[in-house]
Amino acid sequence: MYLLALTRSRMQVESDIAGLIALLAPVGLIYGWHFYFTRIRREPAGWRNRISVSSLVLASLGALLWPITMIFAPKADWSGYVGVAQQVHFVESWEKVAARALLVAFVLCFFGRPRLIAPVAVACLGTTLFWFFSTIP
What is the pTM of this model? Predict the structure, then answer.
């Protein structure tokens, strides 16, 4: 009887994994920027360094668009559904912009510095998951 209470469905496990990746996104961004300021900035500007910095900038832009979008989103009265359509449309339009920037950053990170591939990829995936989880109406 207690064993059934401890078993988890596949959907719960997948949701936990996605949540863990979303929670690791800031760690990847912080590590990437720390690596940039301590190592890449002091080296000559090679093509891998430029691609890594471009990927970091796009991933950071995707993360910074979330609070900006939430601040400037039109207000809605969810109890009477007044203005809800405008708010959802506004947030979804900026979600597309952020998701595309994060997708470009995700693809670019595989051509940058090998040490930054995993942190930037986790940051991109985690930020995208955070966007999708936090903007579900």
Answer: 0.87
